[in-house]
Amino acid sequence: MPTPSPWSPFTAEHRLDDGDRPTVVFMSALFAGGWIWDHPYRRLESAGWPVLRTNEPICALDSKIVGSIERLGDVLLEVCDEAGVKDIVICANSLGGLVAIDLAGRFPERVRGIVVSGAPGLTPDPDVGLSFDRRASVQPAGEEFRDRMLSALFHGEPLFTEEQLEATATLLRHPPAMVSMARSIKATRVYKVLPAMDRVTCPSMYVWGEHDRMTPVDAWVKALAGYPQYEMVLVEGCGHIPMIERAEEYSACLDRFLAPFAEAAGTAGVPA
C-alpha cells in the first residue's frame, strides 16, 4: 500500500485496454487511500475492464486543491489525461461523491456514468472527534478519536487493517494534512449539491449504507425522489463504506451498473 505524503498530487494505479468501454475510475476518499477499492478494482481488473484508481487520500493533497470541489475534479481528470483515459465511469465515496457529481455535470461528454456512496453536503458534519481551531485547521480531540471515527464509518466490526489505520494516523499527524482536511470539509459545506445534480444527465447509481452515521442516507433518499432517473440502492447492515463492509454486494451493484456499457461496446459483461 502506498504511504501517503502531504502535498503530493494524485498518483494512480491503472490497467487499460484498446476497447470501447469507458474506464472505471475509483477516486480515493478524504483520509483513506485507493485501498478502499481493493475488492471492486481487482474484480473488474480480472474481468478485463479498463480501470484506474488514485492512490493518495484527498487530505494528502495541497490545501489549495482540496478547498474546491471543482479543483479536485480537475486534478482527477488530469490523472486520467496522463494515463491516456478519455471516457470514464466514476466510482467515489464520501467527499469524492461530490466530485463525481460535479464532474458529470461539467463534462457530460466525458463522464459516462457515476456511482456515488456516502457523499456529504446534505447533512450536518458528523461528530467524529475532530475540533477546529482559529486557523481553520482541525485536530483529533483526545484518545477517543480512533474509536469515534471507526464507529462513524462502520455499522458492524471495523474492517480496516492495522496497516491502514497506521497509515491514516501517520498522515493525520502532519499539520498540512490537517489543514487540507479542514478546507475540504469547508468545501462540502458551501458546495451547492442539488443544482449540481440538476446538471447530471448520465446514468447514476447511489449505493448507500443503510446505517451510515457519517452521512445519513435519509436526506439523500429525499433528494433523489426528485430525480427518478437515478437509482438508489440501500445496503443493509452497512455503514459509510459499502465497498469494504459489504464488498460483494457493492461489487455486484457495480457489475449490474456497468453491464449496459459492456453491451454497447459489444463485449462480454462482468461475471457475477
Provide an overview of this structure:
This protein has 272 residues and is of the alpha/beta class. Helices cover 41% and strands 16% of the residues. It has a seven-stranded mixed β-sheet with strand order 1-3-2-4-5-8-9, with helices on both faces. The protein has a two-stranded antiparallel sheet with strand order 6-7. Helix 1 (38-46) packs parallel to helix 11 (247-265) and helix 3 (69-83) packs across helix 4. The longest helix is centred in the last third of the chain and has 19 residues, at 247-265. The two termini are 27 Å apart. The model is unreliable at 1-8 and 132-139 (pLDDT under 50).
Write the layout of secondary structure elements.
Blueprint: E1 12-15, E2 23-27, H1 38-46, E3 51-54, H2 63-66, H3 69-83, E4 88-93, H4 95-106, E5 111-117, E6 130-132, E7 138-140, H5 145-153, H6 162-172, H7 175-190, H8 193-198, E8 204-209, H9 218-224, E9 231-235, H10 242-245, H11 247-265
Parallel strand pairs: 2-3, 2-4, 4-5, 5-8, 8-9
Antiparallel strand pairs: 1-3, 6-7
